[in-house]
UniProtKB/TrEMBL annotation:
Keywords, sorted A to Z: Membrane, Phosphate transport, Transmembrane, Transmembrane helix, Transport
Organism from which the protein derives: Sulfurimonas gotlandica (strain DSM 19862 / JCM 16533 / GD1)
UniProt keyword Magnesium, yes or no: no
Protein name: Phosphate transporter
Domain of life: Bacteria
GO CC list: membrane
Length: 544
């Protein structure tokens, strides 16, 4: 009877799950069809408008997959640390992603991200260029869809790079690729996570050293929390100025005439902006922490609470910067197709029509809402356990690493930095806080040692009794008991060995997640390239 009830419960859960999946799919398809219809109806009189309409469909599909995969890196740590609920994170990320795209996304984008292929190789022939960009859009989207399905956070930029490279090779051969640029992108697979991990670990260690390891944690928090939050403010304002405002900087300079007349903000200007905001934030946070200190427990949990609000701001600012920087890059191929269809030529830079930016921004928001929770859970809790101070360290790493890398000219990926930061805090925990696991291991080892000693004692006693010539009735009874006790001890030793092996496998950073993510990073560019080349030949075969 109980088994029948269990089966019924499983059936009910399966039906509910399939119903939710069906609704998600329906909403996603509705958005894609709406984009297709709008682009076709509004541009129907333009030659090759069908190509643009289909490309817009692919772009909408790509945007939703970016929302489902890439945005998780911005809000995942905040959700994993319980600073934000899943619903709150989705709302904040959707608003700030769209805001970043519309406000600071700029009106011009590179048609070929990072100059990975030479557009002159197309010889001014527009059709192969359009096919290549369509293939790149669809290949990047398919790869991101697959990565999301297997819970692997991967780089959107690398997916698009792979798609453009594969289609370019299919269209004009291997000579079209700038292999120097590709080698820099490959280098970022190592540079990004290592830098992100090291910086996140440094900040977490600093937080522990200045507050967590102190006897009077609250007094230490009054001193150090405002400093750490001010550093975060400096980093984020500098980061946003360099990355998020560079495309609208000329407009800002027109309004604020005292700024240097430059096409994009310099590091010095961005850093000064950051220092001004950091000073203001320091005094605000100092006052807030002092007011809250009396109500907090003198524990690690009490300190954690002080990082909750900064984490919410970090999630919002990271989402804004991502919307401003990466959304425009993601829709670069679609903007390139639009430019090629309307002008009949191929350009290295193209204007972004408002409707295309809308496809990117709204698509990301919809993809995040519908399919984002899966990757947010992975980033927030399935790699290592995060609390507020660990998540704060990851957010700090995300902004500071980009600043350092941009000044040194190092190629980095924001996705790899964020995940590297999570690896960093997890491995630091393994290094600094193994006491609980060590105590368990010591206990299991001691138990195993005692059981082996007892087994040897039973064995020695049994051997002595069996060699005894004048055995009595009690001796035979004892021999039987010893055989039974030896069997029991042997079973216990086997179980203890199994338990010890299980405990020794427990790590703060889940090794299976690390292996899966790193493998996905390594194969992202080649996988997207192969997909893109195949799609290019398919489109070419259909058209011709």
């Amino acid at each position: 009877m109980e088994m029948i009830q269990t089966v019924k419960k499983m059936q009910t859960e399966a039906l509910e799950s399939s119903g939710v999946d069906f609704i998600r799919l329906g909403l996603a398809l509705f958005f894609m069809v709406a984009v297709l219809a709008y682009s076709f109806l509004s541009l129907g009189s333009v030659p090759n408008s069908m190509f643009l309409a289909i490309a817009a469909l692919f772009g909408a599909y790509l945007a939703m997959n970016i929302g489902a995969n890439d945005v998780a890196n911005n809000v995942g740590p905040a959700v994993g640390s319980k600073a934000l609920t899943m619903g709150g994170a989705i709302v904040i990320a959707a608003i700030f992603e769209a805001g970043g795209a519309f406000i600071a996304g700029g009106d011009v984008v590179e048609t070929i991200k990072k100059g990975i292929i030479d557009i002159n190789a197309f010889g001014g022939n527009v059709d192969p260029f359009i096919w290549a960009m369509m293939a790149a859009l669809l290949a990047a989207a398919l790869w991101l869809n697959f990565a999301t399905a297997v819970k692997a956070p991967v780089s959107t930029t690398h997916s698009i790079v792979g798609g453009v490279m594969g289609a370019g090779i299919a269209a004009a051969g291997f000579s079209i690729v700038s292999w120097g640029t590709m080698s820099k992108i490959a280098a970022s697979w190592i540079i990004s996570p290592v830098l992100g991990g090291v910086i996140a670990a440094i900040f977490l260690f600093a937080i522990k050293k200045t507050m967590v390891y102190k006897e009077d944690k609250i007094t230490a928090a009054k001193i150090w929390v405002p400093i750490f939050v001010a550093i975060m403010s400096w980093a984020f304002v500098t980061y946003l100025t360099l990355k998020g405002l560079k495309k609208i900087w000329p407009s800002i300079v027109d309004v604020l005439s005292f700024l240097p007349d430059e096409k994009k903000p310099s590091f010095i200007v961005a850093a000064i902006f950051g220092l001004i905001i950091a000073a203001i934030v320091y005094f605000i946070v100092k006052k807030t922490v002092t007011a809250r200190a009396a109500k907090l427990d003198n524990t690690r949990a009490g300190i954690n609470l002080l990082f909750t609000v900064p984490l919410i701001f970090a999630a919002a600012l990271l989402s804004f910067a991502h919307g401003a920087n990466d959304v425009a890059n993601a829709i670069g191929p679609l903007a390139a197709i639009s430019d090629a269809v309307i002008t009949g030529g191929i350009s290295s830079k193209a204007g972004i029509p408002f409707w295309i930016m809308g496809v990117g921004a709204l698509g990301i928001a919809i993809g995040l809402a519908l399919y984002g929770p899966k990757l947010i859970k992975t980033v927030g809790g399935e790699i290592t356990e995060l609390d507020q101070m660990r998540a704060f360290s990851v957010a700090m790493s995300a902004s500071i690493t980009v600043i350092i890398a941009s000044q040194l000219g190092l190629p980095v990926s924001s996705t790899h930095i964020a995940i590297g930061g999570i690896f960093g805090v997890g491995f630091l925990r393994e290094f600094l806080e193994p006491s609980y696991e060590k105590n368990i291991i010591r206990h299991e080892q001691a138990t195993l040692r005692d059981e082996k000693i007892l087994l040897r004692a039973y064995g020695a006693e049994l051997k002595t009794l069996e060699l005894k010539d004048d055995k009595q009735k009690d001796d035979y009874i004892r021999i039987v008991d010893l055989y039974k006790m030896i069997d029991v001890e042997e079973d216990r030793i086997k179980e203890s060995k199994k338990q010890l092996k299980s405990v020794e496998k427990v790590k703060y950073v889940k090794r299976d997640a690390v292996k899966k993510i790193i493998a996905a990073w390594i194969i992202t560019v080649p996988a997207a390239a192969i997909l893109s080349a195949a799609i290019f030949f398919m489109i070419k075969g259909i058209v011709l």
